[in-house]
Amino acid sequence: MKGSHTRYFALALATAVLLAGCAKDNGAPSSGSAAPASASLSAENSAPPELQPATFTYFNAASAGKDGNTNETTLGKILEEQTGVNFRIEHLVGDLNTKLGVMLAGGDLPDVVVPDAGIDKMLDAKAFIPLNELLEQYGPNLKKLYETYWDQLPAEDGNIYIIPFAASKGFVPDMYQPGAFYIQRGVLKEFGYPKLETLDEYFDLIKRYKEKYPQINGGSTIGFEALTDDWRFFTLTNPAANLAGLPNEGEVYVDMATKQAHVTGDTEFTKRWLQTLNKANDDGLFDKESLVAKYDQYIAKLSGGRVLGFFDYGWQITPAVQNLLQTGDDDRMYMGFPLVLDKGVREQYMDPPVFATNRGIGITTSAKDPARIIQFFDNMVKEENQKLLFWGEQGKTYEVDDKGRFYRTKEQIEQRDPEFQQSYGFKYFSYYWPMGAGLYEDGNAYFPDRQPEVIAASYSEGDKKILEAYGLQVFTDVYHEPADVEERKWYPVWTAAKQQGSPEQMFEQKKMDLQRKWFPRLILAEPDKFEAMWEEYAAQFRKLDVKTYEDWANGVIQDRLAGKKR
Amino acid sequence: MSRKSYIGRLMDQKTLMLMSIPFVIWLFIFRYLPIWGWTIAFQHYRPGTGLWEQKWTGLDNFRLLFQEEAFYLVMRNTLAMSLINLVLGFATAITLAILLNELRSVLFKRVVQTISYLPHFISWVVASSIIVTALSIDSSGIVNLILMKLGLINEPILWLAEGKYFWGILGVSEVWKNVGWNTIIYLAAITAIDPAQYEAAEIDGANRMQRILYVTLPGLKPIIVLLLIMNIGNILESGFEPQYLLGNGLTADYSDNLDIFVLKYGIAMGNFSFATAAGVFKTVISIALLFGANYMAKRFGQERLF
Q1: pLDDT the model gives residue A339
Q2: Is A407:A453 a contact under the CB 8 Å cutoff?
Q3: What superfamily would CATH give domain A34-169+358-429?
Q4: Architecture of the domain whose range is B67-299
Q5: A180-348+496-561 and A34-169+358-429 share a CATH fold
Q6: Is B256:B74 a contact under the CB 8 Å cutoff?
Q7: Which residues from chain B sit within 8 angstroms of residue A126, using beta carbons?
Q8: Segments making up each domain of chain B, as ranges
Q9: Going by C-beta distance under 8 Å and a sequence separation of 6 or more, which residues neighbour residue A495?
């Protein structure tokens, strides 16, 4: 009998511990975030209420970085002097879903959260407060900045939960190239800088160069390299639609006449893209190993200088470009072209300025003083403060010429090292706050790396030489301007939010599994077996829940055309 | 025995009991309390909302799991890779331990032991890079290079692109990485064998081979059986990192195991309920296997866990 009593006692004890644990969890955040605010309030009673120092917590799930306080940076200090507000910044370490899940389950939320792809989870848990009234009351500058997009801000229930980034005014080309078929400058030089338009011309050039120079830097020349590692697999699937002259919508393309979405997986252009790679493989131009290699091996190969061509996006090859720059051999550097399958097709590689309404910054239910936060946001989007945050201080990080144009001296351009970016504050304020993009009212570019004066001064001798050979100002001049921007109000479909575990999300995962299995096989197949294998793949692809996915995409398009937020 | 004596024995051992209390509490908090989380498997779980606001879905998540075609494929892969690791792991570790034990030069023995267990301390991320490089078709791929020099193959083989090679590559990699580490426990067990038995065997005229067969191996049997039972309980844990890091689209049919499946269709999609259902399934099967193996050991009159 005694035994069972002890057991009951243990159970009761356990329950008590459990309950105590829960209670503590719920109480902690409120007392935790209130303490520093009240402590600092009493410390400086003399300051006017709107300038009394306050520290808020800020969690950034979208990018990695050094944690710290904004007032430890030059820019953050200036903002603190204006508003009295400091932010303690924390970045995501590890898995986004797990981190947000734990945060939400524990009720331990920072004051301000940039949830990135975890936004639906935050909204599901009702963790963000509606900002409508706060914006009305404290956000005149925010309203002005987001004017053109204002009706896109509210969620379906009419509440504004997040403020998206980069409210764009005016179009400025990027210094870095978006998606492109890159080719070594040495190849272009060898053949007298031909203007490349089609995929066939591109592979023909690579073939001729490889025949002439079977070895580069002591290793065998690689004709074409692919990137297929894990989630980066889209680098192999995305070009298909671009090659057909379509913009990159993600898994679908949209018929402009009917505004109907169709999946790209079993289309003729996807087949032709793979067939071209299949032929390249048969000709010995394709690097088979790139189908099993990891991202770091890919970067290592590009850096080695013996890869003649590849498709990629500027942001994904930065480490390789840096390495190549250091060796100083301009012939091994790359230049990208927006290729198409058939001559005369107008390409649409370059995206119009996208205003992604499902990415942004929100204030959580744990925040003690949301009004102060909105006031801080409102202050930081004033035009003079935006210039401060992106260009820095005149005389220190930029100069102005007599026509009012902003530029940077050589020394100022070279202040690119991460340490300076961090200590000055550029790192903390580079994105992930309410902000604009495009052009300022005076016509200067929002960001220094988009200002023609700065770009021209940043190019190397080799850059300038090849730009001159092609008669271009900047590398992005190889692209056409984005077409039908007004008509394509939905663009791009891929930014639309998908519910956790929904059929459309399942489709994307299964589609990726299928293509990760089949695309490499199709590329490596004997050319005469390609047709049969393609049919087999296409049949399996059609077995997926294509209909539901297209319906979902069409819903997104129709909603966005009707001005609804998706 | 009477209750009185039980209490009495308890009192006699009170120092030991007190010493074990922190560990019992630890065990309870970290191993038993989390079982509460299993409730997630029966919900359409949304983080941040209370227990009573969750949508309860009964066995839907399990139904989804068992209806998924890919589930049976990943189960096959999980079991196959586990069995390969189990058999190879045991065979190589026991062989190496016995061979090391037979060595006379202590210095040589130490050197071999150290070298063989060093790879255990390399993380799989680094190890997989080494393996991928070794299997490369490029000039850096030592495996292809050797095979070509020996004239066994005419042109380099892209090892990691063939699904049917994957289990083999994984098995060999696991052995390379863990064989030295796994021998430690057997070497310790061998030192516990009474030297008098070896002497007696020698006097009876047993040669080296016979001493291994009739003294060392029977001496190791209890520990082998114990480890086997424990490993059978872990058979659904075929590992995650090596498969994730060495696998790719071409080998997915062979390399995707239960853990990767759960990562892709559960956690990565924020579908925690589905991931938990798979976890519950895994635990239940593991417990059943553990009891089964223990029961079998008992039937055959061998050592057992409990």
Answers
A1: 96
A2: yes
A3: Periplasmic binding protein-like II (3.40.190.10)
A4: Orthogonal Bundle (1.10)
A5: yes
A6: yes
A7: 48-49
A8: 1-30, 67-299
A9: A354, A356, A357, A358, A359
CATH superfamily to which A180-348+496-561 belongs: Periplasmic binding protein-like II (3.40.190.10)
- pLDDT tens per residue, range A530-563: 999 999 999 999 999 999 999 999 999 998 888 7
**Does A345 score more than 70 pLDDT?**
yes
Tokens of B72: 């049976």
* Chain A positions in Cβ-Cβ contact with residue B161 (cut-off 8 Å): 288, 291-292, 520, 524
* A100 Cβ neighbours under 8 A, 6+ residues apart: A61, A115, A118, A121, A122, B47
Task: Compute the C-alpha angle A317/B157/A205, nearest 5°.
Answer: 45
Of the candidates A526, A153, A498, which has an alpha carbon nearest to the alpha carbon of residue B268?
A498
> Do the chains contact at B47 and A121, CB–CB below 8 Å?
yes
Please state, in angstroms and rounded to a whole number, the distance separating the CA atoms of residues B269 and B266.
6
- Strand A222-225 and strand A307-312: the pairing is parallel
Looking at the whole model, is its pTM more than 0.95? no
CB pairs under 8 A between A and B: 102
Contact A86, A80 (CB under 8 A): yes
Six-digit token pair at A150? 């204002």
* C-beta atoms surrounding B1 within 10 Å: 6
Q: Which residue has the tokens 């399996």?
A: A540
In angstroms, the CA B141 to CA B159 distance is 10
Q: Where are the domains of chain A?
A: 34-169+358-429, 180-348+496-561
Instruction: Give the residue from A121, A180, A224 showing the smallest Cα distance to A498.
Output: A121
Which residues, including other chains, have CB under 8 Å from residue A64's CB and lie 6 or more apart? A91, A92, A93
**To which residue do tokens 């994307």 refer?**
A508
Residue A26 vs residues A21, A30, A108: alpha-carbon distances, Å: 9, 8, 8
DSSP letters for A408-435: --HHHHTTT-HHHHHHHSHHHHSSSSS-
The tokens for A112 are 């301000």
Interface ipTM > 0.85 = no
In this predicted model, what pLDDT tens digit does every residue of B177-230 receive, in sequence order? 999 999 999 999 999 999 999 999 999 999 999 999 999 999 999 899 889 888
- Structural contact between residues A241 and A264, judged by C-beta atoms closer than 8 angstroms: yes
CB proximity under 8 Å: B 224-243 to A: none
β-bridge mates for residue A91, sequence order: A60
Which residues from chain B sit within 8 angstroms of residue A101, using beta carbons?
Answer: 47, 270, 272
